[in-house]
Design brief:
With 81 residues, the protein is mainly α. It has one domain (2-78). It contains 5 helices and no strands. The chain has helices spanning 2-6, 10-17, 25-34, 39-56, 69-78. The longest helix has 18 residues, at 39-56. The termini are far apart. The model has no long low-confidence stretch (mean pLDDT 87).
Length: 81
Amino acid sequence: MALEQVFECPRTLRRLRSGPVGKLLEGFCSWLLEHGFTRGIIRKHLSNISRLNEHLAGPRSRTRQAIRSREIEVFFKAYPL
C-alpha cells in the first residue's frame, strides 16, 4: 500500500486512515508517488490534509456525504497559514 511506502508508524497510519477523508488518502498518496513526488513532500502534504481531517472529525462533527466550503473556511480560520 502507498501509505506504508511513506510512513512506518502504525499510529500515524491509523490516524491518516481515520476521519472523513481518511479513505481517500491511500489513493492520493499513490498518485503523488506515481507522479514523482519525494517522500518528504508527500509527508508534508499528507500532514496538512491530516490536520483538516482531524478538524472535520472534531467534537461537533457529523456523518457527511460531502465537505462544504464553509467547513474549509472555518478550518483556515482555525489554522491560518
